[in-house]
């Protein structure tokens, strides 16, 4: 049985919506790769980086969580980096959260 991945569904809804609104956006590869039965993390990835990137033309990051999901410590730290650099960061639990920011 295939494991449900509600965050992926929400990410796809957000990407489709933002592209429909005319924004350039996409998913940031945040995982490693499977090598046989082992999962190898990519040492070049930025730990905690958000799931999605949007150009409006300003740069925005969106971290997507399923309802009830929580950020990891690395994700919280990335959010702090964004806030310190005045780069917009959104923690979204649904498409509705994104629609409020990008009507």
Care to describe what's here?
Helices cover 33% and strands 23% of the residues. It has a single domain (6-101), classed as Trna Endonuclease, Chain: A, domain 1. The protein has 103 residues and is an alpha+beta fold. The protein has 3 helices and 6 strands, in the order αβββββαβα. A 4-stranded mixed sheet has the order 1-4-5-6, with helices on both faces. Strands 2-3 form a two-stranded antiparallel sheet.
Count of the separate structural domains: 1
Strand order of the largest sheet: 1-4-5-6
Helicity range? 25-40%
Tell me the radius of gyration. 14 Å
Number of strands: 6
| CATH T-level topology | Trna Endonuclease, Chain: A, domain 1
* Morphology: globular
Features:
single chain; 103 residues; alpha+beta; Trna Endonuclease, Chain: A, domain 1; four-stranded mixed β-sheet; two-stranded antiparallel sheet; 23% strand
């Amino acid at each position: 049985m295939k494991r449900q991945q509600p965050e992926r569904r929400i990410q796809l809804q957000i990407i489709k919506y933002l592209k429909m609104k005319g924004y350039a956006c996409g998913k940031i590869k945040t995982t490693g790769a499977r090598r046989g039965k082992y999962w190898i993390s990519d040492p070049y990835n930025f730990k905690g980086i958000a799931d999605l990137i949007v150009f409006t033309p300003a740069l925005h990051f969106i971290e997507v969580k399923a309802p009830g999901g929580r950020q990891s410590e690395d994700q919280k730290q990335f959010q702090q980096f964004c806030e310190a650099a005045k780069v917009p960061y959104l923690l979204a639990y649904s498409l509705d959260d994104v629609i409020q920011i990008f009507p």
